[in-house]
Amino acid sequence: MPAPTAFDLARVRADFPALAGTAYFDGPGGTQVPRQVAEAIAATMTSGLSNRGQVTASERRAEEVVLGARAAVADLLGCDAAGVVFARSMTQATYDLARVLARQWGPGDEVVVSRLDHDSNIRPWLQAAEAVGATVRWADFDAETGELGVDDVRAVLSERTRLVAVTGASNILGTRPDVPAIAEAVHEVGALLFVDGVHLTPHAPVDVTELGADFYACSPYKFFGPHHGLLVARPELLEQLHPDKLLPSSDAVPERFELGTLPYELLAGTTAAVDFIAGLAPGADAAEQPRRQRLLASMRAVEAHEDELLERLLEGLGRLDAVRLHGSPRRRTPTVYFSVAGHSGREVHQQLAARGVNAPASHFYALEASRWLGLGDAGAVRAGLAPYTSADEVDRLLDGVAELAS
Ligand SMILES: Cc1ncc(COP(=O)(O)O)c(C=O)c1O
Description:
By secondary structure, the protein is α/β, with parallel strands linked by helices. The protein contains 14 helices and 13 strands.
């Protein structure tokens, strides 16, 4: 069969064995995995693999897997492959970076976090700042609209700001703050910008330079890949930082940030996930295009597909009087957060599960945001669309909610 050029949902779905029967709206917690990714992981594990090196074929294979994954991530995010740091999770990468950056802070210095963020882009900064006596300032979002504007961030910037941590997209409300505008304001006061790209990366073409992010972190398991995290930055910036490391391990960038042996098989899976995305809808002249171009074309097609389904979902939920939608951000990912009058989130979750529809309820670790929205620690129901979501699945979700809401 020739490779597809435009987005073909049936074809995309055929690569995901898990989709048979269940409608997954829990992609923001982790997407399902296409068989190409699982096969790449298995093939790598049985291919003859040693520690990275140049002498034996198995040593060279490990080396190629690592360099291949750095190149794939660089294509996906529009960054330098030499600035791609692999980690166990985004949370771990953020904690590690916060600790090393905090060595340059002291009393009087300020760190800005946002109320909209997942806790992994709040707590590591809070705790690192606390450890060195630096001050934490909070950027609040509009609880009605779910928007975090550049003025909300500007309001807490000062000449003493050293770092601002903000999300590229909220994992509960879908809000996509204007990161380039925030970056400009942050850089005007001479601070660094850390962007949590975990929820943005699966839903939009990403260019870390255009975003103005000094650091950008994400997790391949949110975009069809295996469970690990990564952090990217300009290699020159990483060169200035010296994390704790073992004496015999490499002091080169990015290796100095990667503690212990890398998970080669997972990295092969991540490369396969990036290649899979690049093949979703690479455009008519795809064969001649570099992977970065195919990725951008594919992600634009994913955005169009998801936006169409998002409209259907929002319209359907909007027709149900008992449903309350939280937030209405103008620029958003296809992630919807809602409550149903008279029913706990847990009941909605269970009711939908009985219909083979996965849409859990929680704060999803965006605990500060959930509290700020007045939803406390229980949160609400989250329905997240993914590139493999179909209109039929959206209707199944709507039918399940309608039954409860009637
Ligand atoms: C927006 C966002 N940031 C960060 C994380 C944490 O990612 P990880 O599980 O790789 O630590 C998540 C996970 O759900 C997330 O949704």
